[in-house]
């Protein structure tokens, strides 16, 4: 990791604290536009997504999906002997995804764009002023003429479960660095991280139990999608327990024991805690600019402004903890910093995809959210496996399309696409929700036969 030597206190144009995907892109753009930019990251430039999040987890899922597809050969095309090995996965994660969890390339890319990069902790020290504690223990202070951008992201939430603290449990950061598979794994949390990781390890032969406190997996998604996913997980040999209360965790002799509120005890080699995130707002000097360091998010306006010469982007804005939201906000904040015009931030069509198999894609509001917002809605649903393409696809074709229409305006305000290519089909629905395409127009289109996306036409016909 290359650093500048002996940095001096000075006035620059812009300081970016936290180089998640949005911060990195913003700093690169600002430096390329000629601003004097300083970037500070306490760990790896690029943030959670490339090293511990999206990229390594999707690489793991790709491997797990290849095993599942090979196991379908028996039904579709003869025989295939499937012998899982984690070695190619660990090698790809190390060498291709993360360069050995080393950010040299990302640092050099920023430096080539003209930015100064520090590994260290950045903290606000009043308006447009940042104090950086460098990794060697020294510190440097910057005044920022244009201001400061915060992109500090989140960390795995530490659960207040008796006995858990101090045990060698995994978070997502450990799960992507696994070199040897355990025999058994308990996953606490049935959100996107828990579901994606659980399916990966189960498909590699690990005995997996998922413990979810809420009433279903993927709580914020449509309940119909969650029900299908639970069904698939169970059919693949996983144990899924919803509505659980975890009373205590202990670790002895290389095994975890998870004691549930109802008296049951689960024993496993490893424990993955994927039960939400804590925003990195507590050690950022927010109090020096009148903001609350204990808050769950930083309030921003439609230009990502959070105060006097202060912008905030990414997960901590509470607008959707996704890389694409961080990048979207990054472009808006950069335009504002450079004094350029452009559309303000809008969040009516935030898409997301959980990359389980089947994938669960969603955009805009769920049926529940739309009803709760007071809209008069109509809902249409169509099962994927009953479409011609689903029938042809055979094993692995579980899924659905669900559309939620604002009946008064005749436009979709939300949609779900679940299936082998749910995240890709979602693209169509994201356009419809984003651009408020009239449902009448969507119904008058021609849908290629026999595609998965033709299920959208069936769901639209079901609007009632
Ligand atoms: C396992 C997993 C899978 C995921 N999969 C997906 C996916 O498929 N698709 C998707 O869109 N999203 C996914 N996400 C979410 C995605 O990783 C985040 O939304 C994304 O990284 C954007 O976060 P961010 O921009 O807020 O910052 P982050 O990526 O969290 O980066 C913040 C950076 O700030 C640094 N930092 C924090 N405080 C300071 C400080 N005081 N001084 C200096 N540096 C500081 C940190 O070291 C870090 O590098 C996944 C997350 C996880 C954990
Ligand atoms: N494919 C993707 O886009 C993707 C993948 C992974 C993560 N992410 C992002 O990262 C965020 C964080 O993911 P996450 O899955 O950690 O968090 P999450 O908050 O989305 O889900 C955590 C789950 O853990 C459950 N939980 C909390 N405490 C519990 C307890 N004591 N016992 C049992 N269950 C408990 C919650 O009810 C919830 O369902 C996601 O919300 C998403 O924004 C995105």
TrEMBL record:
<feature type="binding site">
    <location>
        <position position="122"/>
    </location>
    <ligand>
        <name>FAD</name>
    </ligand>
</feature>
<feature type="binding site">
    <location>
        <position position="315"/>
    </location>
    <ligand>
        <name>FAD</name>
    </ligand>
</feature>
<feature type="binding site">
    <location>
        <position position="58"/>
    </location>
    <ligand>
        <name>FAD</name>
    </ligand>
</feature>
<feature type="binding site">
    <location>
        <position position="212"/>
    </location>
    <ligand>
        <name>NAD(+)</name>
    </ligand>
</feature>
<feature type="domain" description="Pyridine nucleotide-disulphide oxidoreductase dimerisation">
    <location>
        <begin position="350"/>
        <end position="459"/>
    </location>
</feature>
<dbReference type="GO" id="GO:0016491">
    <property type="term" value="F:oxidoreductase activity"/>
</dbReference>
<dbReference type="GO" id="GO:0000166">
    <property type="term" value="F:nucleotide binding"/>
</dbReference>
<keyword id="KW-0670">Pyruvate</keyword>
<dbReference type="InterPro" id="IPR004099">
    <property type="entry name" value="Pyr_nucl-diS_OxRdtase_dimer"/>
</dbReference>
<dbReference type="InterPro" id="IPR023753">
    <property type="entry name" value="FAD/NAD-binding_dom"/>
</dbReference>
<feature type="disulfide bond" description="Redox-active">
    <location>
        <begin position="49"/>
        <end position="54"/>
    </location>
</feature>
<keyword id="KW-0520">NAD</keyword>
<feature type="binding site">
    <location>
        <begin position="189"/>
        <end position="196"/>
    </location>
    <ligand>
        <name>NAD(+)</name>
    </ligand>
</feature>
<comment type="similarity">
    <text>Belongs to the class-I pyridine nucleotide-disulfide oxidoreductase family.</text>
</comment>
<dbReference type="Pfam" id="PF02852">
    <property type="entry name" value="Pyr_redox_dim"/>
</dbReference>
<dbReference type="InterPro" id="IPR036188">
    <property type="entry name" value="FAD/NAD-bd_sf"/>
</dbReference>
<keyword id="KW-0547">Nucleotide-binding</keyword>
<dbReference type="InterPro" id="IPR001100">
    <property type="entry name" value="Pyr_nuc-diS_OxRdtase"/>
</dbReference>
<dbReference type="Pfam" id="PF07992">
    <property type="entry name" value="Pyr_redox_2"/>
</dbReference>
<keyword id="KW-0274">FAD</keyword>
<feature type="domain" description="FAD/NAD(P)-binding">
    <location>
        <begin position="13"/>
        <end position="329"/>
    </location>
</feature>
<protein>
    <submittedName>
        <fullName>Pyruvate/2-oxoglutarate dehydrogenase complex dihydrolipoamide dehydrogenase (E3) component</fullName>
    </submittedName>
</protein>
<keyword id="KW-0285">Flavoprotein</keyword>
<feature type="binding site">
    <location>
        <position position="276"/>
    </location>
    <ligand>
        <name>NAD(+)</name>
    </ligand>
</feature>
<dbReference type="InterPro" id="IPR016156">
    <property type="entry name" value="FAD/NAD-linked_Rdtase_dimer_sf"/>
</dbReference>
């Amino acid at each position: 990791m290359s650093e500048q030597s002996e940095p001096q206190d000075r006035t620059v144009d812009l300081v970016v604290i936290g180089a998640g995907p949005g911060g990195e892109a913003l700093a690169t753009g600002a430096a390329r536009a000629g601003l004097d930019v300083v970037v500070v990251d306490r760990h790896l430039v690029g943030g959670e997504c490339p090293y511990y999040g999206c990229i390594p987890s999707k690489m793991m899922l790709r491997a797990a999906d290849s095993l599942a597809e090979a196991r379908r050969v028996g039904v579709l095309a003869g025989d295939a002997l499937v012998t899982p090995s984690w070695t190619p996965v660990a090698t790809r994660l190390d060498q291709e995804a993360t360069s050995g969890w080393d950010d040299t390339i990302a640092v050099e890319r920023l430096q080539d764009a003209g930015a100064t990069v520090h590994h260290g902790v950045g903290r606000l020290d009043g308006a447009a002023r940042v104090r950086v504690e460098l990794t060697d223990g020294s510190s440097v202070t910057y005044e920022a003429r244009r201001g400061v951008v915060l992109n500090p992201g989140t960390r795995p939430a530490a659960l207040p479960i008796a006995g858990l603290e101090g045990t060698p449990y995994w978070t997502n950061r450990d799960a992507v660095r696994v070199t040897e598979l355990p025999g058994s794994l308990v996953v606490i949390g049935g959100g996107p991280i828990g579901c994606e990781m659980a399916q990966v390890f189960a498909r590699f032969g690990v005995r997996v139990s998922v413990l979810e406190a809420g009433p279903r997996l993927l709580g914020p998604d449509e309940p119909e999608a969650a029900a299908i996913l639970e069904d698939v997980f169970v059919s693949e040999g996983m144990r899924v327990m919803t509505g659980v209360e975890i009373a205590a965790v202990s670790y002895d002799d290389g095994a975890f024991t998870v004691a549930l509120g109802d008296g049951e005890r689960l024993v496993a080699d490893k424990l993955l805690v994927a039960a939400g995130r804590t925003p990195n707002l507590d050690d950022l000097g927010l109090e020096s600019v009148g903001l609350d360091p204990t808050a769950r998010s930083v309030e921003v306006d439609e230009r990502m402004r959070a105060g006097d010469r202060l912008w905030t982007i990414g997960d901590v804005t509470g607008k959707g903890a996704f890389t694409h939201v961080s990048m979207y906000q990054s472009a808006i904040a950069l335009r504002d910093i450079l004094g350029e015009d452009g559309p303000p931030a809008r969040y009516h069509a935030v898409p997301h995809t959980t990359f389980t198999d089947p994938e669960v894609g969603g955009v805009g509001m769920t049926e529940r959210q739309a009803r709760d917002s007071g809209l008069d809605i109509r809902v249409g649903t169509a099962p994927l496996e009953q479409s011609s393409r689903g029938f042809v696809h055979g094993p692995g074709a579980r899924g659905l399309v669900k559309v939620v229409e604002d009946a008064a305006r005749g436009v979709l305000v939300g949609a779900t696409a679940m299936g082998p290519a749910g995240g890709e089909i979602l693209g169509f629905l994201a356009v419809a929700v984003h651009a408020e395409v009239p449902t009448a127009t969507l119904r008058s289109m021609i849908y290629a036969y026999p595609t998965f996306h033709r299920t959208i036409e069936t769901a639209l016909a079901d609007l009632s």
